[in-house]
Amino acid sequence: MNQLNAEWTKRYHLAFEASLEPSEQLRSRVHREWRKYNMSVLDVKKIRSVLSMAIPRSQESVQLPGGLVLGFDKEVLVATRTVTDYYWALRVLAHAWGGNCNVSYEGQTILMMELSAALGYADNALRDTMDYGKGSLTWLQIKKRCVDEGEDGHPDPSRVASRYGAWRGCS
């Protein structure tokens, strides 16, 4: 993770608020999936920033035979009640995508996805939701799923770099 942080600082010279900074868990997952060319569609409720990871979790326990008690943290989901909430979650994901992974291609080391393309995805999602979806959260959720998943219902890695241009073409 330290190497990713160093590469980010060297490339962009940017720092984000804790509410927009992707959690280490999210950045690690994106990095691992992109390294293996095995991306998955993330549920927006599970996209966590550094700030959302700092929220205290509720504890749950289960009584086991023999007087043993098993305690564990209950998973906290990010609330996405409005289009704006959804947009900010996409921005956190965009920051995880941008600058997260260098790959070798035809003898050159290239960036998997530029930050500007990742931010364009989130920004165009919001713009198109307001223009075409009349600000409907349901419209945004359906369009995002349609763009992220191919017709067979699985993630389509070829759409990643160009995905923010595909919003209007998805029926």
Q: What is the spatial order of strands in the main beta sheet?
A: 1-2
DSSP helical segment count: 6
Overall 3D shape: globular
Give the H and E element order: HHHEEHEEHH
Helix-residue proportion: 40-55%
- N→C terminal distance: 39 Å
* Arithmetic mean pLDDT: 77
Number of domains: 1
**Main β-sheet description:** 2 strands, antiparallel
Strand content: 5-15%
Low-confidence stretches: 152-158, 160-171
Give your account of this protein's structure.
This protein has one domain (2-165). The strands form 2 sheets. A two-stranded antiparallel sheet has the order 1-2. Strands 3-4 form a two-stranded antiparallel sheet. It has helices spanning 2-12, 24-35, 50-53, 83-97, 115-131, 137-148; strands at 59-63, 69-73, 102-105, 108-111. The chain has 171 residues and is an alpha+beta fold. The longest helix has 17 residues, at 115-131. The chain is globular and about 60 Å long.
For the structure shown, list the relevant keywords.
two-stranded antiparallel sheet, 171 residues, 4 strands, 6 helices
Write the layout of secondary structure elements.
Elements: H1 2-12, H2 24-35, H3 50-53, E1 59-63, E2 69-73, H4 83-97, E3 102-105, E4 108-111, H5 115-131, H6 137-148
Helix pairs in contact: 4-5, 5-6
